[in-house]
Structure prediction request, 145 residues.
Amino acid sequence: MDQQPKDTSAIFPLRIADAGRSVRHVFVRDLVIDANIGIHAHERQGRQRVVVNVDLSVTEIDRPVQDKIGEVLCYEEVAAGIEDIVATGHINLVETLAERIAQMCLRDERVETARVRIEKPDALPNAGSVGIEIERVRKSTQAPG
Prediction:
């Protein structure tokens, strides 16, 4: 059976570290946090590990960085923001956690795109990990449609 190639012209891919657009890639890898997350009764009885990965496309300033933290997006602040979101209390869905993290990142006007991956490494006994990944784009940077 012949399969037609998918039309990918409407997809706006995440562009990271793009010199032509003055975009840098800021990321947090494999941030392990104990979270109150899940819909099952046993998940409501305690915390479980989640692994968070965040990739951000960030607009660079118009001049070389002067070696001052205030001129860049601080990955420590991103990680602290994620920990603050988790600390607010029980969250039913990993999708909800990912959306909250993406929205937190996009509050910084320099962030054009946020890709967030949430994994629950202990959710299924026969799987190394389960989870989701989302990508959110600042409204002003979306491709014309």
